[in-house]
């Protein structure tokens, strides 16, 4: 295996939400507007929930050529400065927000996308949402053939594969490159004159097409179309490549067709509630999950409280279905950011307390149903339970808007190792005892499928979604991980 | 009038919530703990909603004396750096967050509290929440007598009055000084050995007392006690001065007693919903406002949506009382911060869109009740209405959780000039037409009083609260403002 | 004694020249030009050798009023940014560079001059070069009478004394204030319409008057007139106050006349060699010192080398008089700045080596005369000697261009405590042995007086200069220091 | 030609010395010491005169692997921060300071060396002083074969050539790569275990070997050995590759031998006067140039003044030989840095005045000989002449310590285009008239050769040095430049 790359700087990881799965990326691109980079900045701001660590923009101007900026931190703190935005002229731009590197080292600016490469026929930039499951093998092969990698990012493989393609045009070279790549990817790319979007054959990660004035937009989610006033046109189809220039949108299907397997967790947690996926409102899907959950796992109680903010729509649905009043039992501090120095040992559970506070007067003497989107390590769930009991609740019932998360994701989501997932080693009852709550129930996998609109639930012989994190059934073999020792679920 | 003071730097005002009244300050102090400044940092973080522009901490250590730090920006971004916090040692510290200067000039670090003064008997620092209504007159008098002001802040008068007092102790000098001061004030102060808290005789602004381990805490709100795990003891009473040292809490009442007039807007908007004021949960009060509003101003509709986040509890109450389902029709972007550069004129209403997005799929073809906490200029209400209609709503009904805001506040809240207040120049019906909504109703003043627990409503002869912003009845004469031309409400 | 003031930030002291006396301040002011602050920035840059720690500018514009900026660090790094300079408009400005605070605490921005005060008749700003020898007593008195000090700087007394004066105009109040002040001061001040300069009755610190286009300039040294192309007019006389407005320069003499005692060390080290003091070129005076030194203390050797850069003119003079060739035996690194981390203990004497390197090939096997301007603690001299011997010199002879520095300065120069001055505890021979050099000779006090143009040397009964650092004869009683235990030289 | 690369940030060019040739780089490496990066920081500080724009360090630690930092600005401002240096552990490190990019675009951090590459057998970093004259051709070829360039730097070719070599070890791959490269290069490189140094066959740029404690050092100049207390061992020979590990120094000669042609301008200006080149003190060589110049071009005058600081040794030599007194007629401001905003048009020649001031009292009524190291565009010479005359000099005679600079350098020095070089279009007399001085004389090429120790002057048939900037005789064909239209000197 190649040696680790040197790194340049250190960076503080955001302390909030440390017990959630993290979407690793959001991508956005625009062509045919004045000052495209400003649109991209707005789009990335609307996609910030998909990656908070860093963001980057590459743009092209007929006179000023390619320009780029990559920064750690929030879009709003970097890509709002006029002095910076003025260095990013032109009618064509793409951008990327990301959560983290694949490795465990400190993040480095070189790993921040979009990546750029000069080819004999001109430059191109690409931004990638997803994960390449054969990246280690590809990287090793490319290095042996003389490629110099500049980042630790798996996505850089794509640009090197493009550089070595014998095709004459950049879109053709991208097809060549992506045919060598396994895994999940939604790619937004650009040349001097074209905006390009591609989704992997399974369509694991989202990508939508929009229109703004005379220009075109590609975005991970529809909420980023709204912010720039763009009209939603359609999803880029699984396995489709769209190539957009002044003449409009050309569609190609360079891969062997497969049955789509969209990531079901996008519905549960990753996407914003105001986005629309597959004609469905994400908010409505989550409310339906709450309804299903109330049907599957009813319990007598005085109030239904969301764990803010991600549990809110499911809690509203649960309250609606059960008739138990909805209430804000936990208040989120809007100003949360970096970690505080712990003042003394007198103060426990500070991490959660900085972000969440219990509405003590409301909770006291109540039987409380807490609705959360998922349980990953279980550390936050335990702290929340303690805060609720400390405030005088009589009973605490957890209702979880997803099935037990028992398997890591290898398709562009940051998950702990399998042994750190609470559901990998415990049954539902064991988790209840571990968390010391009065009851704990997860929605069933079938219930979840019903909530996303599959009336007859999951088709076990050929699931309609990628649900590997719940089922352990990986639609693309995680070959690098297997090489490193990961064991697939034993055939039943 | 004295000349304006020179300023040092420029600063970008936060664009979010530009159409709300702003609490100008939060105060916090601790004595008797290790590294008190860390506790103050946490407390100020929990009080950040009371002032986002700047924060300051002064502390005292027996060996290292007084130390201080003042910074623009959020507490989380400044007072979390170990290198800074290490310069703030000792068991006694006070802090302050603030929204803005009284003047219109760019903010300067010299205006950031706490203020510090050396007296013949030692140093003292004070942090002030409120506003001194005779500050201009006091300042003029003090300058004529040879005081040198270092800030543009009215609060600096207090420290100069203390410096000129002939009393022998700092608490006595503070009494002397505060007896000269008119207006609303909750003060947290410290000497080398004492933590001091004072509320004005009307008790307009809040101040509570708590206990943490062997130490004592003073805070604007109880939510800041929770974050450090402190126990709520009681409110500091209107007109009370508490002086706390190693021997415990001494109570004084240096002012002529008056009937209290607590700010009713703290219940409506300023305080955090998880705080407790006068034994009442703020969240519950707001939910009650929603219930009252549903009784006073019912309307047929499909969903009740809060304008996030401040309208949420009242919307829950409205839904509960009316039976109309509660729903999240508007989604707030959690990553909002400074303003973006407007990309082009194609994009209108960007200010609101950066912060809020409509849940289009939910809103379409619905009759929507929007519950908001208040209407100030009306600019944001209008934009929200447009976004809702643009998403396809059939009807839009505004329900406002406070009476019409028709008068400016002179007691520590940032309000526009009277002529900018929509309710100062329009009736409820005129406002409805102006906003072009299907209906617009405010809670009545009596309804609001009922919601805060006054079963028989407002006692017009002797109101139980300060409600000047609604009624125009100012419990303390705003003498500086009258000097500048402000006209009181004509006697009826 | 009053308690120390809280401080705000930490700052790294410049490591270079740590074994020199330091001038504490330079002052500069301009009236009657467009964008006066730009002129002041240039002037302060030319005076940077008088104070490297921090700089400040206050200016006034008829419309924009007073504005100011204070910054730590070099003028070139702060006052060259257009974004900052644009906040400093107007035809009238003053500025200040300083070396350090009087106390030992970390420097704070509040201590950076000019100081500003609002008086009943308008604002005024002052910048002060020198030291007030009765500042502690004044400060104590002012605090007892109710003044609030905002800095640790003695110079702040002046503004408080002005605030308490009963005079009607600011210049009159300044006269009032300065009559209460003892010590050495050259003050540059401004009101909204006037530029004011004052020197103490002894004229210890320099101040010159210049003309640029239609405007007037006040500056510590003439080299700062050159940089803005100003014409040198004359020195402000000892005890004189000049008040400059649109009508020209008015001259006042508010103090009781005394025989002048200009600081002789300005000739030796503080002033720049290209400045002119009392009609004499500083460079030429220093060259004359070298000539006198060669006459007083000749020695056989191969080369005469300056300790760069301050020893250079005297070395040129020494070489000229002795006929021994002048050579650059020590090379100064032009890029010196903050301290480096010492890599390991293997490397000794790094502090000096970072700044100076021996020209080894030149020095080897030579008898070397090293000419330095002064010996303070002797620490640097010792390290230089070691470097020279290490490079293979056969003999090392130190020749010092000033008499032994045996007494601290209390008139605006940073000197170590008396016991740290090598010459306070050792004779010339003992110092030679201590430094382990082949010979060590200082110029005599009479020789120094001859070099500055007093043909018959020092008039012991009534010295023509302040030479307290050499003679221990203090022309103004250092009363604060005596209070703190400093012992004057016993009468002989 | 490949498209321009996108750039990331803007940067202000240092204003000082804008009329000098600029060495583009300095290199430094250490192996076998604790915390090698600290040594490299010190070494780069001593080499700062060879490149002020940016610096970089790469290091390797057996546990922590490769780490790196690249920064714009001075070494002292970046590589002195403990927080940064702690991220650079290990016993092996190399570093680089550079003046500028080859292109005209804004500098970007990606162009800052050392460059790093992962190969199949491990990582390697290289730092390059010099210029590759066939870089454009190599880059084009490499891109066509699929290499992705990450910088605009010609030096990156080396790492890509190494990546494509079929050799088994990194030193062998480096030999392979450097055999493809034309031009001038002194390279310092490292693997995980080895420090490597190489000079091109002509030895145009310097590189020396030293020893410190148990470790070894490679440096552009000996002055950087002195700063870390290292012992000078020898020069790396032209065409030599040294490979250093725990077992000591191995020497290879991978290139076809050629007669060396060291850059003669290193003696004249680039190297520091306290460095030793080819057994000769640079200071002494420059003093000899002054002596030769006094013999070749004597003139009657009152004083000899250097243009500081580079003209100083030659002025000392000129004074010594001519008997005319040496004097500091021009004083350099030690605090020079970035450009100032020009205050108004009243002030001309500010660029020079910020850096240099005339010692007016000395110059007045004198006949002045000014000794400068070179004349490039002549712009500064003209301004200095004006300042000298403005101060009242009677006559101004320029004596230049190098022959007329008539040709650009293509071997790692930043020179203006040929048409901007004053000497390319004017004879010595024409230049004198152009500068309007009383006389102007350059040293002859033979005189310069004598001064560097070639007693019989230049061997025209086979010059002992590279003197292309004076003679137009380029020892390596500048093929990229010829491709772009540069015309070689016509054969005579």
What does this structure look like?
The structure is a homotetramer of 492-residue chains. Chain A is α+β, with helices and mostly antiparallel strands and 492 residues long. Chain A folds into 2 domains: 22-261, 4-Layer Sandwich (Glutamine Phosphoribosylpyrophosphate, subunit 1, domain 1); 285-331 and 350-455, Rossmann fold (3-Layer(aba) Sandwich). Helices cover 28% and strands 25% of the residues of chain A. The first copy, chain A, is built from 18 helices and 25 strands. In chain A, strands 4-3-5-2-11-10-12 form a 7-stranded antiparallel sheet. A 6-stranded antiparallel sheet of chain A has the order 6-7-8-9-13-14. In chain A, a hairpin with a 2-residue loop joins strand 10 (208-212) and strand 11. In chain A, helix 5 packs across helix 6, helix 9 (282-296) packs across helix 10 (312-322) and helix 9 (282-296) packs across helix 16. The radius of gyration of chain A is 23 Å and the shape is globular. Chain A starts with 21 loop residues before the first strand and ends in a 9-residue tail after the last helix. Residues 1-16 of chain A have low confidence and may be disordered.
